[in-house]
Design brief:
By secondary structure, the chain is an alpha+beta fold. The chain has helices spanning 15-21, 47-52, 62-75; strands at 28-34, 39-45. It has one domain.
């Protein structure tokens, strides 16, 4: 599949891909760039994606880290 970027750098994700991954108006998209392979990776942040992460960070203190980060942001 191929698309073209506009002068503003915007692209259109084809409707078949949007349907397959549950992308709707307002869906947040995570963008990662792999400098080594020159790939741009778009990951829709949907309910299914969030559920797939359950248990992935268990025991890593991620909630404590998140709360500390939010506390620091409020102090700024």
């Amino acid at each position: 599949m191929e698309t073209t970027a506009t002068i503003k750098g915007q692209i259109v994700i084809p409707s078949s891909v949007r349907r397959r991954f549950g992308i709707k108006e307002g869906t947040r998209i995570q963008i990662e760039a792999d400098e080594r392979t020159h790939h741009i990776i778009l990951t829709p942040i949907t309910r299914d994606y969030i559920f797939s992460l359950r248990g992935k960070y268990k025991g890593k203190g991620i909630m404590k880290t998140l709360m500390e980060e939010r506390h620091r942001e409020r102090e700024l």
